[in-house]
Amino acid sequence: MYKSSFLKTLIVLFFIFIYSTGHSQSAPITGTVISPDNLPIELATVSLLNAKDSTLVSYTITDDKGIFNLFEITKDSLLLNIYSMGYNSYYKGIVYKKAAIDLKTIKLKEDLSQLDEVVISAVVPIQVKKDTIAFNASSFKVNPDDNIEGLLKKLPGLDIGTDGKVIAQGNEVTKIYVDGKEFFSGDPAIVLKNLSADEIAKVEIIDKNSDEAELTGINDGNKQIVINLSLKKTKRKNRGFGKLSGGVGLDNRYFSNLNYNNFSKKTQISVIGKFNNINITGSNIQSFLENADGLTDESDEEDSEKPSKSLSGFLKTGVAGVHYGHEYQKRESFNADYFYNNSENNGVSHSKRINFANVNNFDYQAENTFSNITNNHNLNFNYKNQSNKSYSLFVKGKLNADKRTSYLGRDGSYLNNSNELVTTNNNQLENENDKKLANVNINYIKRLAKKGRSFSTGFDLTSSSSDRDNEQSTFTSRKLNTNNPNYRELETLRDESFRNNRFNFNFKYTEPLGGNYFLRVETSFLKIVGTENTNQSKTTITNNTTEDFLSYKYRYRENSYFTKILNNYNTPKLNISIGTILQDLNRYFGETHVNPITKSQFYVNPTAIVQYRPNRGKKYRFFYRRSIKSPSINQSTTVINNLNPFSIRRGNPELKTEKTDLLQLTANIFEHKSAATFSSKIQFLYTQDAIIPNINIDEDFVRTRSYENGGNRKRLNTTLSFSRKISKLGLRYTLKNQNLFSTTNSIVNNILNDVTSQNFLTSFSVENHNKNNFDFKTGASFTINETSFSIINDLDRTYTKQDYFSSFDIDVSKKLNFNTQFDYLIFSDNKFDSIDNLPLWNAAVSYAFSKKKNNVLKLLFIDLLDKNVDIYRRSTINYFEETTTESLGRYVIMSYTYRLNNSKKRKSKKGING
């Protein structure tokens, strides 16, 4: 049934894809761009703008013969702009009536003026340079209170996923800079949520070389996609700008946000503040539901409430952050940022779990009450010096202090195969965890006299500590028969102290071998030292006797020596790197009062990378690597953790290391002429001597978890994304598909269990690409998960999730805006009586009541249908679980936003807005 539905969905989407691809081109506007010398101009940007407000309609670039073809055009009065660096911009009015237009030959005039880059960006909607695409932000309509996220979503070739990741031309954006400088460590999530879209003059998408390639001039293929946001000229004149907003609503709901920035040519200061009780942490406010994506493993924090990515329970948040950046000279700068976060999360949930242990399967149900309080301090800093042509120096550091207090109360019931109540337990756990971490990383890159010859060296030092105080009380009622119940009450105190130090030193040397060949030798040393001190006492309250007392000190040390030898071939289009990594691994661990257990191994790990970039916007990459993973301290410890009497964990000191072969193929294509984006990835992991869980469940439902080396683990992950315009309808569609296949083993009550998990996700969305007065997006996604087990076939699980969504944003007038979002979710699960359907509806109305739009009132409606529920589901190696949590439901808030120092735009000498 589920497979059939899934296949039908794929077939429908496939035919939609074929139809729209085959019928996507309208009658074109064509022409040829030449220089004053009658030579063709390649990579000139040809843009069509709406004649009314200069917003972007479509664009393309010229080929090596200077020819351009513009498709995907709607019937309208348009303004054609052609731009190439060093030439004057060309403008021509066009009335497009769905008939082909041939503009013949267009000769650009040489630009003799010296316009600065900001003025150029204000004139030209799009610039295409060697490794950069720059968009003029004024060519895209944004609302007065939109943040950067709202602007980036409108740019061709960019996409922001539900997880907050920014994808540009099929590649994940790793950093976002402001005026070429870091803003809160360049973290995209912070930048997206805390800068206003109307403060930006230009958005640059940069295919950035690695730091080493920038210094040596040798293209090593290690590029990354970054975004640089250029502020409007009025924001750079040492004047503060930002916005202040706040709101109150029904049921005592409130929020407040502050963002203030003061940027000069050399120094940047920013302040961020948030305070609310509406479950906002900076993530998407619509994240009410999460569906587990395939087989998951139990967290080491099994005794605490399972965290969900969605906004469960009732959350109060307070955030304060400050950023300071200073540029000493060109390409030499210092940046530091500090964040304080305080949150309190409370709630009630209900858990249902189906457990299997060969013949004695059972169900578990629990009512949970949880409370978590977090205080977090986080300081980041970095120093970069790339001002010297022969060397570069990078220093990064991080200090973190995190104190968490949590409470979990759980009333659980165990039922046998006949659905008879056998055991009940009341479990209360109070936990205080004080974590600290310090990290410093220093890297030095030196270019030597001979071209291509260079070396780099550096080290990374991390020191961390964790002190945990646990207090758990458990009341158990064991019904041996209906007339003779057995009661037991335990109280356990456990104090744990963990210390971990990690030091890594590396040295790399590159020698040119002639032509485009290079020899690269890398050597590194990794040292890990960890200690654990634990004291535990367990008292039986029913007879007031101490059952046991445990005190131990545990140590762990790992030394790894790596030697990497690579043969590289580097050209502007092709990069090949083939070599091997020699690894000498030595481990020492055990309790301090006994002789340590010693493990020593030597490995030869091959590695290979082939990357091909035939032309702009296209990249194909093959990657292979073998890696070694040592057992963690929890997996290899010799000491038993029985804080929770129903969930005991023990390690296995005889574990061997895992050996994983990773094979990955990626393809990213961005076609400027049609604004089509295609990206795909195939990743396969094969692990030998995989460390698998060994679960033993006795007749009292006590679950003991250990580990074994259990054969092989396989994981195949594929992703596909395709986006293109449908010109006749003025729309853009996006098709996405993700598939996950995994096989692993587990041992359940001494029986080897083969576990297979399959997860499929397909989504299709359509949105308008001419966003002058309104935006809309609609689509659907379909997820199916199947998990099967070899030891018990009738417990195979299949569940699905269908999500039909739509959003609509319209400017009713220049000052009045309305937007709404609606999701309709349908669930099915062959193991649980899940919610059949769940509608979610949000809406907002905003009004800017001043000419400069400095003042904005907004009425916000969240969860209008009051479906205040959160669902977390997962499949593990011996149980299925579904947790339903009461969460923040319907609320209405009236908010006010004031934009700081939003003065009138100044005009440049040529009368162009900066």
TrEMBL record:
Record key words, sorted: Receptor
Domain Outer membrane protein beta-barrel residue range list: 447-784
SUPFAM superfamilies per the UniProt record, alphabetical: Carboxypeptidase regulatory domain-like, Porins
Biased composition (Polar residues): 472-483
Coiled coil segments of this chain: none
A Pfam family annotated for this UniProt entry: OMP_b-brl_3
Positions of the UniProt region annotated as Disordered: 457-483
Domain of life: Bacteria
Stored InterPro entries: CarboxyPept-like_regulatory, OMP_b-brl_3
Name of the molecule in the record: TonB-dependent receptor
Highest classification ranks of the organism: Bacteria, Pseudomonadati, Bacteroidota, Flavobacteriia, Flavobacteriales
